[in-house]
Design brief:
With 292 residues, the chain is mainly β. The protein has a single domain, classed as Beta-galactosidase, Chain A, domain 5. The chain is built from no helices and 22 strands. The protein has strands at 2-6, 11-15, 20-25, 47-48, 59-62, 65-68, 81-86, 89-95, 108-117, 120-129, 135-137, 140-141, 144-146, 158-173, 180-196, 207-210, 216-221, 227-231, 237-241, 249-255, 275-277, 282-291. The strands form six sheets. The chain has a nine-stranded antiparallel beta sheet, with no helix packed on it. The chain has a four-stranded antiparallel beta sheet with strand order 13-20-19-16, with no helix packed on it. It has a three-stranded antiparallel beta sheet with strand order 1-2-3, with no helix packed on it. β17 (216-221) and β18 form a beta hairpin.
């Protein structure tokens, strides 16, 4: 079921399946969210929980037992319940159940809230431990944005722009197992804040950034100045990705953790970026996308 929200400037649509944002239209009606052409990628803006990225062999060891879980977790494929709704906001909830426990043996409540403010949309993740044991998890967003935005422009007219100069070594991703090799480098920034967009940036999967100085990043045209900006200060990692077959979009992905590293074990608790909530505890993470 699609839920529509709007304010005086922008509008959005959210699917209760996966609590996925499937539309975010700017002031001029331009559709910023990738519309899921399966030729490139069938998603829009999937929600990543309780893992980000892939597990080695699609499985992990939790409490001494093996569990299978697909890339980016199961939350993006579950039906959510609408917990609250108004004209410019909606909250959707997923609770642990017999089916989720086949992959992730914990009790939890996971709430995704979308709120429109001015020309922006904020996505908030709330994780609650409703069980009687510690709850480990990772969470992240994966919105894809249509490019180009302005008529007469092309993909290569756009830049990835960080708010501050960055020095980064993006790790290589194993294309076979989708694991991250932090001992190998696929892209480097040396006190720079601009990456000119070209499709070849993504021929080896995503660019993965950790502990950036910036809390904002933009996809912005050098010609028209049009695009989107994301504020992601709650997240220590950022993935930037597009299809390896020249898809006309770019995904900006704020993460608390990432795919299993080549150097890591298969123990769930040992995954990079793992957060843990004690019984009764909760945590919130949010990012905001601005239409520019």
């Amino acid at each position: 079921m699609l839920i529509h929200i709007q304010n005086e400037n922008v509008s959005a649509a959210i699917n209760t399946l996966g609590a996925e944002l499937v539309s975010f239209k700017g002031d001029d009606g331009f559709e910023h969210i990738w519309q899921g052409d399966p030729k490139y990628w069938g998603g829009h803006a999937p929600v990543l929980f309780p893992i980000v990225g892939a597990l080695r062999g699609g499985r992990t060891r939790i409490k001494g037992k093996w569990f299978e879980m697909n890339r980016h977790g199961f939350a993006r494929r579950c039906e959510y319940t609408v917990a609250a709704q108004r004209e410019d906001a909606v909250s959707l909830v997923l609770e642990g159940n017999d089916e989720t426990k086949k992959q992730y043996p914990y009790d939890f409540r996971f709430t995704v809230t979308y709120t429109l403010t001015g020309s922006s949309i904020t996505t908030e993740f709330k994780v609650e431990n409703t069980g009687n044991e510690p709850l480990p998890f990772c969470v992240g967003g994966h919105p894809g944005f249509n490019l180009p935005v302005a008529e007469g422009e092309v993909f290569e007219d756009y830049d990835i722009v960080f708010e501050k100069p960055e020095t980064q070594k993006c790790p290589e991703i194993d294309l076979k197992e989708c694991l991250i090799d932090f001992d190998k480098v696929t892209y480097t920034l040396d006190d720079e804040n601009v990456i000119p967009l070209q499709h070849s940036l993504f021929y080896r999967d995503a660019l993965v950034f950790s502990n950036l100085e910036s809390s904002c990043v933009s996809l912005k045209s050098r010609k028209s100045g049009r695009g989107v900006m994301m504020e992601f200060s709650d997240f220590p990692m950022l993935g930037i990705w597009s299809a390896a077959n020249d898809g006309p979009y770019v995904a900006l992905e704020p993460w608390t953790g990432c795919a299993t590293a080549v150097s890591e074990s298969d123990e769930f608790l040992e995954k990079r970026g793992m957060r843990t909530l004690q019984p009764g505890e909760e945590a919130e993470y949010a990012f905001t996308v601005f239409s520019i």
